[in-house]
Amino acid sequence: MPSHPVDVHVGSRLRLRRRMLRMSQENLGKAIGVTFQQIQKYEKGINRVGSSRLYAFAKFLAVPIAFFFEDFSETESGFAETAAAFDHGRMDSKETSNLISYYYQITDPAVRKKVLGIIKSLAAPANGAEEE
Question: Which terminus of the chain is more exposed, N or C, with fewer CB under 10 A?
Fold first, then answer.
C-alpha cells in the first residue's frame, strides 16, 4: 500500500528539521526512544508518526507541532498533490539543509537580504527568476 501524502510530508519535515540541527538519525532516535531505522521509516513516510511521538519530536526539535504540516495544501476534492508528484528531493537534500542552516547563522537581517539577492541574481539567468 502506498504511503499517505500526509505521512510523506510529515516525514520530510522531520528530516528537514533534523538536518537543520545537524543531527544524525541515530541521535534523534536515541532521544525519542526508537531505533535509527524507525526514524528512517518515519522520514520516508513508510510508517505513520503517532500523535504522542509527533509531540515528542516537536518538543525535542524545538518546533511547534504545526511545523510538520507547513506547506501542505489540500483542495475540496482531496489532496492538491500526491506524494509521488511532489519533489521532495531538493528540499530534503543535505545541500539545501546546509544552505538554510548557514543562511540563518547570519545574524544581521540586512546581510541576509543581500545574500538572498545574490542567490536570486545568480539563479535568474538559469531559470528566468525575477526579483521580488
Answer: N
Domains, the chain, in order of start with CATH, read 5-92 (1.10.260.40)
Largest separation between any pair of C-alpha atoms in the chain: 48
Cβ contact 19:97 at 8 Å? yes
Whether the pTM exceeds 0.85: the reply is no
- Which DSSP letter does residue 12 get? H
Residue 47 in this model has a pLDDT that exceeds 80? yes
Residues near 36 by beta carbon (within 8 Å), at least 6 away in sequence: 24, 25, 26, 28, 29
Q: Is 37 helix (H, G, I), strand (E, B) or coil?
A: helix
